[in-house]
Amino acid sequence: MTTTLSVLDLIADVHRHGARLTADADGELRLKGRVCSGLHRDLRVHLPQLLAVLSRFHRMAAHDASHDRPPVPMVYWPHHAAPGHCQSCGQTLDHPRAIGRCDSCEVAAELFHRTRAARTAADGQASQSTRRERTPR
Fold it and tell me: C or N terminus of the chain, fewer CB within 10 Å?
């Protein structure tokens, strides 16, 4: 599982089992809940990719919670995004003239936007049901 979608699929599988994955400040992957042994094995195999993605995702989510708008494009500000460096974390990219994100930040950004879209949709549905309850009959 080295493609960006496969890491997202692995995280989605964990959620389908009713569990959650987080990366703590010590660089440890935390699984809250139970998953099948095959999925647990996949998590161990892909631990480095999952840690890289989830640590970046949590930074993006923390930024989003502390600001009025999403951190688009989640640019790494201490250093200007320059060719050859990830625009989100500053990591050196494979090609010295490449512009964009490293693989881990790309997956984290996709996960961030999917999560944010799902939360927005859930908030909209909750708002509609509240309005229906208040409507006099």
Answer: C
Yes or no: say if 116 and 64 are a contact pair by the CB < 8 Å rule.
yes
For residue 91, count CB atoms less than 10 angstroms from its CB and return exposed for 0-12, middle for 13-18, buried for 19 or more: middle
Determine what percent of the chain is predicted with pLDDT higher than 70.
74
Strand 29-32 relative to strand 20-23: parallel, antiparallel, unpaired? antiparallel
Is this structure's pTM higher than 0.85? no
Res 125: pLDDT? 74
Asked if 96 contacts 84 with a C-beta cutoff of 8 angstroms, the reply is yes
CA–CA distance, 108 with 9 (Å, rounded to integer): 13
Best CA proximity match to 100, nearest among 69, 64, 75: 75
Give the model confidence (pLDDT) of 67-118 as tens digits: 655 554 554 455 555 788 887 788 888 888 888 888 888 888 888 888 878 8
User: Which tokens is 78 given?
Assistant: 């201490």
In order of 3, 28, 106, the CA distances from 95 in angstroms are 18, 30, 16
Record the tokens describing residue 69, joined without a space: 């708008």
